[in-house]
Design a protein that fits this description.
By secondary structure, the protein is α/β, with parallel strands linked by helices. It is built from 15 helices and seven strands. α11 packs antiparallel against α15, α12 packs across α13 and α14 packs antiparallel against α15.
């Protein structure tokens, strides 16, 4: 695969999970899987769930490497210089199959869903690789991207599991899956990482600076932290904080500078419009929480705590900002659907939000 081709299962600006050298912070889930395999009770389908960005795909790929390399019984870690690990990293291992949303060369965009043809290819993989013996592993990331026909096709595979086959399903929202699919899988549920584990993972990914701020802004999601780091999200968030610090006067030039960045071209590393909408959503969420729980610690931008204490001093203010957050998300989806100018849409949202502040904010 070309390095320039986007991958739907990779966080923009971060390495693909198959390149992660180890699983960090999920010892219980790893031990659960190893115990099952060690007792010769290896289930044919595993559903790996938990909040987005907490390492579900990293665990899935670690399990895949372990199965294909006949790893040690007490750890999922497989040395990266082994032939199997190198083939997995290169997606050239013949006993491994990856199911994910593909890239549409005609439109230049990722496909919206995993289709039935993708699951049929999975079925063909299990039939064609049966003669090779040993484990054959499929990773489906994310399973909740499947459309109805694909889900029904996968259910048939799970009902008649291939000999030696193991299917690893990554699911951000398992409730969206068919109950019959969930019932045929053994679940490994992951929890958000602790701040210490977050710092360790970010360091392993080469992110040394501002780890605490990234952890605070990402809500314990490594995937989100890496995405923000890869798009210089902390700098853009600080720009947003500086803009709101001008309220109730509202600095229109700062607003224009922030909004115009949304008009940039989307790349494999991310979409500047989506980044700004995400940061505005995070800002409003943290702002509303400040009225109920106090200013955030640690801060994700300089002077963020003082600003939030001023803009959202109590529960009444929190309700206003929480309502604004819900409205912003809906307007962003609607604006994207009808192809409104991103910069104009963001500017309009900023003006709307600024109009909320004078009702409960002192200059």
């Amino acid at each position: 695969m070309s390095d320039e081709t986007p991958e739907s299962d990779r966080v923009p600006g971060a390495p693909h999970p198959r390149h992660a050298p180890a699983v960090i912070g999920h010892d219980a889930a790893a031990a659960d899987f190893l115990a099952s395999a060690g007792a010769h009770r290896l289930h044919h389908a595993w559903l790996i769930t938990g909040p987005r960005g907490t390492g579900k795909a990293t665990l899935a790929w670690a399990i895949a490497r372990w199965l294909l390399a006949d790893g040690a019984p007490d750890t999922l870690t497989v040395p990266p210089d082994t032939p199997t690990a190198r083939r997995v990293a290169a997606l050239s291992e013949p006993r491994l199959h990856l199911v994910r949303r593909g890239f549409d060369e005609k439109t230049g965009r990722m496909k919206a869903e995993i289709g039935v043809e993708d699951i049929r290819a999975l079925l063909s993989f299990f039939h064609m690789s049966a003669a090779e013996g040993g484990h054959r592993v499929a990773v489906v990331d994310a399973a909740d991207d499947m459309n109805g026909a694909a889900a029904n096709a996968l259910l048939k595979v799970l009902e008649e599991p291939p000999k030696g086959g193991v299917i690893l399903l990554v699911a951000h929202q398992p409730a969206r899956l068919l109950p019959t699919i969930r019932s045929r899988c053994r679940e490994l549920r992951l929890k958000p990482l602790s701040p210490e584990d977050m710092a360790q993972v970010l360091s392993a990914q080469g992110v040394e600076d501002n780890a605490h701020a990234l952890a605070a802004l990402s809500g314990g999601s490594v995937g989100e932290a890496l995405r923000l780091a890869g798009q210089d999200g902390l700098k853009t968030y600080a720009q947003l904080v500086q803009l709101f610090a001008t309220l109730p006067r509202f600095d229109r030039q700062k607003a224009r500078d922030f909004a115009e960045g949304a008009g940039g071209r989307a790349t494999a590393d991310g979409d500047p419009f989506d980044l700004r909408i995400t940061l505005m959503d995070l800002f409003l969420t943290r702002l509303a929480r400040a009225g109920l729980m106090g200013a955030p610690i640690p801060e994700a931008a300089p002077d963020e705590g003082d600003l939030m204490a001023r803009l959202c001093p109590d529960a009444d203010a929190a309700r206003i900002w929480a309502g604004a957050q819900a409205d912003l998300s809906a307007r962003a989806r609607a604006g994207r659907a009808v192809n409104l100018d991103p910069a104009a849409l963001v500017m309009d949202m900023l003006i709307q939000l600024a109009g909320l502040a004078p009702a409960h904010t002192k200059a």
